[in-house]
Write a structure and sequence with these properties.
The complex is a heterodimer of chains A (584) and B (42).
Chain A (H helix, E strand, L loop, with lengths): L3 H15 L30 H36 L2 H35 L1 H11 L2 H21 L7 H33 L14 H5 L4 H29 L4 H22 L2 H15 L1 H8 L4 H25 L10 H19 L8 H7 L13 H25 L1 E2 L5 H27 L3 H29 L4 E2 L9 H27 L4 E3 L3 E2 L10 H28 L14
Antiparallel strand pairs in A: 1-2, 3-4
Chain B lengths: L1 H28 L13
The chains are: A mainly alpha (584), B mainly alpha (42).
Amino acid sequence: MRWRPLLLALGTVALTVALPDLGLGAEDTGGPAPTPTAADYPRIAGVTGRPVVWALAQMHLFLAAFVLAVPMFVVAIELTGVLTGDDRYDRMAHEFMKISMAAYAFTALTGGALALALFVFYPVLMGYLLRVFDGQVLIYALLFILESFFLYLYYYTWNALRYGDRKWIHLSIGVLLNAVGTTLMFVANSWATFMMAPSGVDEVGTPLGSVWAAMQGPLWNPLNLHRFLANIAYGGAIVGAYAAYRFLATDRPEERAHYDWMGYTANFIAILGFLPLPFAGYWLMAEIYAYSQQMGITAMGGVLAWLFIIQAVLIGSILLAANYYLWCGLMRTEGGRRFVPWVKYIAVVLVAGFLVWVTPRTLILTPQEVLAMGGTGHPLLGPLGIMPAKNTAVNLMLLATFLSFQLFRRASRTPTVPWAWIGNCVIAALYLVAAINIVAAGIYGYITPTVYKVGASVPQVVSTLSVIVFVLLIEAFMYRGAVARPIAWGRMSSRSQYALFVLPVAFTWLMALMGYIRSSIRTYWHVYTIMKDRSPDAYIPTIGEVGNYITVITLVFMAVIVFIFWLSQIGETRQAAPAAETGR
Amino acid sequence: MAARALVFLLALLSWVVYFYAVDWLLMTAQGLPVGWNLMPLS
C-alpha cells in the first residue's frame, strides 16, 4: 500500500525524463549559421552585451545551482527521518527548504533578466540557437512551470502530509521535483555544450533535423555530471553558512545545538559532493581535449592557464576550511580527543599539497629576475609546476580530507566486533600503499614520455577512489552494532563557524572563475568553428580584468545570500503583541 | 603485538598486489604497455 505512491512517482519520473525525446524532430533546418556584422550587436547607453550577460548568467547559475541542489539532499534527509523515526531530520530538512524557497524568486528573476538581455544584445545568435533547438525551448518552459509547481507543492504540503502513507506521497513529490529540476538543468546544459562543441549540425551550421542530436554533443554528459555534483557541494556549502549564521546569532543552548548539527550535516553534504568533483572535472577536460586539442591547450596551457593557479588557491582554501571544521568537530566528543595529535600530520599533507599545487610552471618576471634564476622556471621549484606534481598533490590532499572525515566519524562510535583490530590494520595498510602508489605514479610521470605521464594520472585517481570505497565498505561492517558515544552538539568554537563561511565564498568565486574559463575557451566563436563572434567584445580580457569582474559578481551574490538568510530568519520572528491598555 | 604486525604485513602485501593489478589494468586499457618506458636520454 505504501509503495503505491512511490510507484506512481517513478512512473511520472520516467515520463518526465522521456519528455525531451517527444516532439524533438525539427523539420525546418533553414540553412547554415548566420554571419552577423558588428552592427548586429547593439550598444545600450554605452554598454555592450558581454558584461551584462556575463553578470546575469553567472548570478542565475549561482542561484539555480543552489535551488536545484537543496531539494536533492532535502529528500534524502527527509527519507532518513522517516527510516530512523528521528523527527530532528524532518525539521532540519524543512528548514533547508525554507532557505531555498527564498532564493527561488531570485533565480526566476535573474533567469528572466538573462533571457531578455540575451535577446536584446545577441539577437542573431539567439535566432540561430532557437532554430537549432526548435521545440525544445517550449519543453524547457514547460519544465520550468512544472519545477515551480512541484517546488511550491513540496514546500507547502510539508506539514499536511507529515505521517504514514501521506509522508510517502510527500517524498514522492520531492522525487518528482528533483527529476524535473535535473532535467531542466540538463536541457540548459545542452545549450552551453552545443556552443562549445556543436553537434547535430553540418560544418557550416545547418541543423541536420534532430534536436536530440544537437543536445547530445560530446561535452554534454561530462558537464551534466560535473554540474550535478558541484551543485550538491555548493548547496551544502550555502546552507552550512546559514547554519553558521544562525549559530553565531543565538545564545540559547538548544538553538546552538540545533544549528551546530545543521552546520555539520551541511558540511558533510558539501564534502560528499566535492570529493568526486575533481574526477568529473577531469572527465570534462579529457573530453574537451578529445574534441579539440586546440581548445584544451587554450584552457590549460595557453592564456587561461594562470587562472588554474587561482583555482588551486581556491580549492586549497576549500579543503583547508572543510578539514579545519572537521578537526574542530573532534572536540564535540570525548572519543575525538585521542585523534587530535593526528591532526598536525594531516595538516602537513594538506599544506604541502596546497603549496605544490599553487606552484606555477612559469612566472611573470623582470629580466633581472630571469638572470638571477638562470631561466624563466625556478631551478628547484620549477619541476613542481607540471601536472604529475599537481595530480599527486591533489590526490594526497583528497586522501587527507577523507582521513579527517573518517576520524570524525570514528570519534562518536566504538566498534564492538571482535575483528575490529584486523579491520584497522587493513585500513592502515590501504592508506599507506595507496599513498605510495600515488607518489610513485607521480614520479613516474617525470621520467616517461607525455602519453605515459597523462596515462599514469588515471591509476592515481583510482587509488584515491579505492581508498574511499574500501574504507567505507570495511567500516560499514566494522561499525555494525557499534556503541554510540554522546556528541555534545553546540560545543563548537566561533572560529569553526567562520570556516563554514569560507566554503560558500570560495565555492562562489571558484564557480565564477571556472565558468568564465569554460565559456571563454571558445575564444572568438559564439558557436565553436561554426559561428564567429563579431562583437567588439570578442577578445579574451586580461587576467586582472577577469579577476575584478568575477570578484564583483561574487560580492553581489554574497550580498543576495545574506539578504536571503535574513529573510529566512525574519520570517520566524514575531513581534510581541502590545500590552493591553490599562486604565488611564 | 606479533599477530598485529603479521596481519598488517599481510594486508600490506595484498594491497600491493591489488594496486599493481589496478595500475596494470588501467595502463593496458589505455593502450600503454606496462614497463619503465623511460624517456630517451638525449
